[in-house]
Write a structure and sequence with these properties.
Blueprint (H helix, E strand, L loop, with lengths): L1 H17 L16 H7 L6 E2 L3 H10 L4 H12 L8 H10 L4 H10 E2 L3 E8 L2 E7 L5 E10 L5 E6 L3 E3 L14 E4 L2 H17 L5 E7 L9 H12 L11 E5 L4 H10 L4 E5 L5 H7 L8 H14 L3 E9 L7 H12 L4 E8 L4 H4 L8 H13 L4 E3 L22
Parallel strand pairs: 1-2, 6-9, 9-10, 10-11, 11-12, 12-13, 13-14
Antiparallel strand pairs: 3-4, 4-5, 5-6, 7-8
Helix pairs in contact: 2-3, 5-6, 7-8, 9-11, 12-14
GO molecular function: 4 iron, 4 sulfur cluster binding; metal ion binding; methyltransferase activity
Subcellular location: Cytoplasm
Organism: Cyclotella atomus
Length: 408
Amino acid sequence: MTSSILLISLLLAIIEKSHPLILTSGQRIPSRQSIHQHASQNARLGPKSFFDLPAIEKFATDNDLKEHHLKGLYRVLMNADRSTLERTVLEEQLHALSFPKKQISSLLSTFSLTCSIQRIEKSKGGAKFVVQLPNGKLIESVLIRHERHNGDVRYTTCVSSQIGCAKKCSFCATGTMGLVGQLSSAEILEQIYLLQQYVKEEKLPGQVGNVVFMGMGEPLDNYDAVHEALRGITHQCLFGLKAKKVTVSTVGASAQKIRALADEAPQVCLALSLHSAIQSSREVLIPSAISIHIDDLGDALDYHACKSGGRGAMLEYLLIDGINDSNEEARALTEFCLKREGSVYVNLIPYNPTLAGDDFGFRTPLDERINAFHDNLKASGVKALVRWSTQNGRDANGACGQLVSSTA
């Protein structure tokens, strides 16, 4: 009898060990991959990031930690300030949470914060951050300040998903870099963490309430890492944002991946950088648009609208003088919007000067022309708004389309 009990106990222990620990409590968006697959694909020399959640889960599995240990770890990290992040203080706080002493030492030897802020350029609308990655490369992130009429303040973090970008949009500074590299999910999440820490340390009013993937890179070209980052952003044990407070922006890199996002994270907002509803005009502004026709892009948006419960995409439309601000362009945009299955909302963005755009002679339209384009859309029943606020940050080269790192 005793030997049978021991055998059963051993078998149960083996079964438990073979099932990796996943921090499912508070999880809103599941991982697409097993933690072992993700850990091997995101392998980095040197310390791993605390925000590589699959790697942390694998560590917990291998070291017999439980879910409450991981919840405690992230409770410490998310409430930390600069002094709390010192190793000795982390050791004390984890020990107080009943972490086994041996595992604490191994954990803090294996994981750390791997990114750092190298430079901050403040502007009237927030600040641009130059962030150094563990490989020494630089990316840029932006903190955008919003103040409501009642005086309440909140912040949006604009994060990068790649070092540079392969799309080479004719108006965008980032495209001049080409694609230097893909970011891991942890490197995406650390950008948000660093900006949150900045808000705390500077004792700024309000807190980060939104995250937008509108920094350097095309998010859908780094879909696996972006999806894993969405898991961390919305996970209640980490950043805890609701999915509707997160926006993934794309130039329409892949209709298939727009559908995948609709299937796997339907409550996350989708923003499409359209810039023209005329195929030939769009190809001038976005050379990669040659690989996907405007009609196929519209079909992908309709699929996303159905999966998201009728909540359509935001259409980003950069207005450039004499290029895409004509009445003909307004009619084409109106037709594209009115054909959609779900509701769409058009953000009209006055062009922000860049060296890339200078090569093409691009200019910002006069305010009268911008307002006339806006009026044409509204008169036809299209919901639209001129986002004058996207000019904020021009003084720090941190406005829409201006992100570039010359030392990446």
